[in-house]
């Protein structure tokens, strides 16, 4: 069945305010977004617990150990971001393809299977993590690889679910129309499911194990996910600003070419000290040093588009979070990554709080932001395609404060950890010669201890911002009667489709 004319698919169509007309893909997207936000809250709670354990090592010892809190903090993060991406893609697919979602029933089952599996994995993380590591525990309890600790059965489940997702999306574009954005997106989704396989080998050699593990970790976050956010950013700019398709697609191609050019061999910055051949020092140092370039392009892209439209958008919170994404990605991934990517520097900073500092700013800046932007785009439409530009009834204080508190909070945590990392690089590495004793010595010095306290302070600021975000998401636009501001037609130029 073709979509009927009265079912508007995106935020820029004129649905009358108060009316909620969602397509199958959009309904599914909302489910993904709800699950994403629940997991985001879980991420924060377990982050706060892990942070407290840095200051009070006995806190919850034997009840909820640091390794468990850290693992849940990180896994909740990866999974909520995946949910956010899948939600965003389900949100845009029908609009971009100009047709209804193929296989909505399968897609729905997929959501529930994935969600049930995630719930079981988290419960197992929380309840059963003490005991011998055996082949059975790899299959059922924990695979032991940071970020992808999920047991093997869940690994297989994740690959199956992302493959079903891929089929839904690719089939919808095949039934409808293709564009530069959708073509890039579908190719990227192959990598999203496929790369996960590299994290499922069992090997007794730690170097070999790490070699493949980084394929998932680095090639996911620095190539696959970056391309994915490039695609959804391009679509988001068209919808919130009316940016021209021809322009966003051109930028997307440039960014993707640069990202693959630097990101793939940039993998070498994780091969410096794990027992791989020495040529990785040069290769990894050189290519990863180029990785910030596409991120600069993304900032220029977003600011250029927003500038040409005089920053007039139909959805201010979404645009603000998209801009936060462009800068956060550049700072967190580009600048903070670059700081420690040359082997001469990484020799001193490797595995210290520098890494955690970069990890926080990069994941928040690059991925939390854009997911939140998309949730605002979806909510605007769900609440009846209502007004979300300037002049909101409460002055828009909730979205502004939540954005401000979260950005200040994460930046504060990042700087605190960087200071701790500097101290570790000096005391543990340069002066102490990287001995076991120096490792502990560094963590008792005032700069480190105080930095961990400041990390907690800013962690609480971040959590406060998040609480206001949830409040805003539940209320924004609910009593609004004005229709959304009209933005220019992104397809205005006839030769547009990329
Ligand atoms: C959005 C993109 C990125 C994200 C989410 C990200 C995230 C992370 C995380 C979480 C780690 C810690 C991994 C661990 O546990 O060992 C890490 C390590 C690292 N990242 Fe990134 N990163 C991104 C992009 C970049 C870029 C563009 C560069 C270089 C310009 C970079 C350079 C590094 C380096 C050198 C390390 C190793 C740190 C060490 O030796 O301890 N990252 N990254
Ligand atoms: C809300 C307050 C938060 C607190 C108190 C917190 C605390 C922590 C702690 C204690 C760790 C373990 C660090 C270590 O092993 O040295 C950690 C790791 C991590 N957190 Fe958070 N976190 C918070 C929020 C976030 C947010 C919002 C993000 C990203 C969206 C994030 C991303 C990460 C990442 C990527 C790592 C792994 C870093 C690495 O491997 O080096 N955290 N966090
Ligand atoms: Fe990397």
Description:
This protein has 498 residues and is an all-alpha fold. It folds into 2 domains: 182 residues, Up-down Bundle (Cytochrome C Oxidase, Chain A); 247 residues, Cytochrome c oxidase-like, subunit I domain (Cytochrome C Oxidase, Chain A). Helix content is 71%, strand content 0%. It has 16 helices and no strands. Helix 1 runs antiparallel to helix 2, helix 7 runs antiparallel to helix 8 and helix 13 packs antiparallel against helix 14. The longest helix is centred in the middle third of the chain and has 36 residues. One protoporphyrin IX containing FE (HEM) binds next to helix 1, helix 2, helix 13 and helix 16. One protoporphyrin IX containing FE binds next to helix 7, helix 11 and helix 13.
Reconstruct the topology from this structure:
Elements: H1 24-55, H2 66-97, H3 104-127, H4 135-140, H5 152-175, H6 180-194, H7 206-241, H8 245-266, H9 279-289, H10 292-308, H11 316-339, H12 343-349, H13 353-382, H14 397-431, H15 436-442, H16 446-475
